[in-house]
Amino acid sequence: MTAMSSRSMLNPKVQVYNGDVAVLTYNYAGLTIDKDGKTEPSEGFGEEELEIIEWYNDMLGDWGEGWLPVNRFSTAVQAAIADWLADFRATTREDLYQLLILAESGSDDVNIPKKRTLVRLLRENTHS
């Protein structure tokens, strides 16, 4: 069995049946598995994108504040991350991490979008 990092597992969930059987289900970004169990790369997030998504889901993950999780592949998420990093490549992706910290704290230094998604957070906080 091949070990997978938690970064590859989006939206992991444990389901328990009859109190004694646990099944881990998740959306796995980046691979498809054929009927023979062979895996091949597919459309999906890269490692850097998965790390950013993991930060977002962990930090803004209570969803009580209305933040929606990233739980499947989306070209919109991929493009928003690429655009944000391209605009700020002179700094680092740690700046994106700092943006998430500010959003989590409700700081006035960050534009909180009306619809709370990673895509909109990045787009509304891109500085020209």
Plain-language structure description:
There is one protein chain. The chain has 128 residues and is of the alpha+beta class. The chain has one domain (6-124). 35% of the residues lie in helices and 18% in strands. It has four helices and four strands. The chain has helices spanning 47-59, 75-87, 94-105, 118-124; strands spanning 9-17, 21-28, 31-33, 39-41. The termini are far apart.
Q: In order across it, which strands form the biggest sheet? A: 1-2
Helix content: 25-40%
Radius of gyration: 17 Å
Strand % is 15-25%
Tertiary shape: globular
Q: Oligomeric state of the chains?
A: single chain
* Secondary-structure element string: EEEEHHHH
Count the helices. How many?
4
Which secondary structure elements does this structure contain, and how are they paired or packed?
Layout: E1 9-17, E2 21-28, E3 31-33, E4 39-41, H1 47-59, H2 75-87, H3 94-105, H4 118-124
Helix pairs in contact: 1-3, 2-4
Features:
single chain, 128 residues, alpha+beta, two-stranded antiparallel ribbon, 4 helices, 4 strands, globular, disordered N terminus
Concise description?
The protein is an alpha+beta fold. The chain has helices spanning 47-59, 75-87, 94-105, 118-124; strands spanning 9-17, 21-28, 31-33, 39-41.
